[in-house]
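Re-running the complex after MR caught last week's input typo. The corrected sequence lines follow. Everything else is unchanged.
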Amino acid sequence: MVYLTRQEHFNAAHKLYNPNWTKERNEAVFGVCANENWHGHNYDLFVTIKGIPDADTGFLFDVKVLSKIIKLHVIDQLDHKNLNMDVPFMEGKMCSTENLAMAIWHQITTHLPPNVTLHCIKLYETARIYVEYFGE
Amino acid sequence: MVYLTRQEHFNAAHKLYNPNWTKERNEAVFGVCANENWHGHNYDLFVTIKGIPDADTGFLFDVKVLSKIIKLHVIDQLDHKNLNMDVPFMEGKMCSTENLAMAIWHQITTHLPPNVTLHCIKLYETARIYVEYFGE
Amino acid sequence: MVYLTRQEHFNAAHKLYNPNWTKERNEAVFGVCANENWHGHNYDLFVTIKGIPDADTGFLFDVKVLSKIIKLHVIDQLDHKNLNMDVPFMEGKMCSTENLAMAIWHQITTHLPPNVTLHCIKLYETARIYVEYFGE
Amino acid sequence: MVYLTRQEHFNAAHKLYNPNWTKERNEAVFGVCANENWHGHNYDLFVTIKGIPDADTGFLFDVKVLSKIIKLHVIDQLDHKNLNMDVPFMEGKMCSTENLAMAIWHQITTHLPPNVTLHCIKLYETARIYVEYFGE
Amino acid sequence: MVYLTRQEHFNAAHKLYNPNWTKERNEAVFGVCANENWHGHNYDLFVTIKGIPDADTGFLFDVKVLSKIIKLHVIDQLDHKNLNMDVPFMEGKMCSTENLAMAIWHQITTHLPPNVTLHCIKLYETARIYVEYFGE
Amino acid sequence: MVYLTRQEHFNAAHKLYNPNWTKERNEAVFGVCANENWHGHNYDLFVTIKGIPDADTGFLFDVKVLSKIIKLHVIDQLDHKNLNMDVPFMEGKMCSTENLAMAIWHQITTHLPPNVTLHCIKLYETARIYVEYFGE
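Corrected-run output:
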């Protein structure tokens, strides 16, 4: 069993704002992250899969194909977008890094071939803050 | 003469959109960066000053004071903001990294003491794109 | 269950020196790290907590609060200090990165709220050497 | 139980080419990585061991000795070499990062003292692609 | 006048070997870099251009177009190639980082529009060694 | 003319403390950096030389020889040392990064061969603070 990780990135706008709360409560809980006019990040995404390498290729999975799957189901949906307004799979969810990492897991896991398993989604919001999700 | 650099960062939303142009022309020129609903970045800012170190301290300038000047006149104006909507010193300007670097220069240069000179503003928009401005 | 990590850093002096040994044995075992006059490091600290995100905020835990807990109980005790001389919670312990990571665990773990669990302390001594401790 | 990691690196040439296949099939499967005239990488290697620190030193294991073991059994065999032609322990294997990480595990694991256990080999092929192997 | 930098990368094999010298002299001068069977690197390339930003776009130059120029005239010629064997513009030259940086300058400089000037080619061979060339 | 840079590093203890001043004044000016019991850093050092590459080797200068010169005259003097107590060439000087960078320049410049010129000493004290000195 080996683990293979591919790093990708996307740039997006968001705000942390619970629509069921008053503006004052949002600002009290989320501080500057609740700015109505949005802010944004360069997100760094690490996708880790696991399984047994193929004897003929030495590959667990062709990393170029993994990159295409991530691009189609995640990057193209998130890059240069507003996470609160433009992303169907984030609709109705708070745009925290925690929720975003879990949503990315579900975007990828069903598109992998049967011999590989998604192991981890690691998502950096800033250089000093990241979230990991292992699907459970 | 020595050069002293302090790195800071801020997270902001923006879009590249010329209000004098049609939506179509904006999309043709700026591509996904023209997304009406904004996108954003983790900007990394490097401020370099130059001068002669003081004999008693060995310092060109107290880097904690430099950091406070940058915070007051730049970071507090830009961090968790929308560069197109929330920033007086960017009003009426296209929010390109080039224009932002030049505007940051003017925010800082008048607040330095007479014995130090601002040398360079270096601004990363993404990990692979940066702009430098030397004031001329 | 998601995992949230916050990176912090501190700068400190230390030496590796067992007071029960002769100077010669200390130098034989620890080499240049036993220099009586100290040396020092920029330590990078990664604190990982785990738990279930809150439905209303999307947060496992407010990362600004996590940062304050780390600052109060770890960074303020270690930053710009001598690890062998100035730190009550390292008293009587060898100042190895291993022991320091374990001590940092105990400084933080009792100050977290009941819905989050400390998962890992990862501590870089240099860019190429780090220690991880998972509390067991 | 603590985990200690040491990072090393080596620069090597390789190609991905299955000698049992035609040139056309190799190019179809491996693309530019099948270039007959080779290409190469700066590999970054992270070796993680685990165990209980010694009470007298505070060390799990002297990281300088760990570095020497890695140098003797891995770096000296791989650095400035052609992975397909010059490395006895890769003979007959496809030179994928997956196979290389597993081979490095076997080069190191038998040379560690009884009180430490090899935990992980993490190998970066490029800045955005890495493989991890935990020995099972 | 602003300076805009775009980072790209390529992976290639090479050796340092002067064909006018004996094998012994090559090994004496170039050491392990003279290995007949090649070695390789992940090269990081920084291309810096300078000029006056356009008033309507705020851009010195569209960084996506700059990236395409670099890709067409440099990356496509060097990536997953053998620098000594596969690259017409390196023919007859020693494959040092110095010579490669100067050759990359000449590949790019003639393909830039008249309002921008190539300022610097910065090329990392390893994480700790880089060369800069300013065209003079 | 090309510029060649080699990165090295060292770990050292220091304090910022002017012996002609009272303890109170030192603390007022230098804050936590004046801690009598020292603190320390992982310093990153970039040495840049310039000149014309040799036609037979393609080298400006053998980077392994440059590394040895830096090691002998700088790293061996500073690594795992107390900058205030253990370093003859810092005697009588304030141990600021500014003064240290200038002193490193003088340690290296006289040991280079006539065909290369020292261009820049760049010294990181922390990941976010660095000094550059160009010899004038």
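None of the earlier attempt is carried over here. Chain C has one domain: 2-133. The helical segments of chain C are 23-30, 63-78, 97-109.
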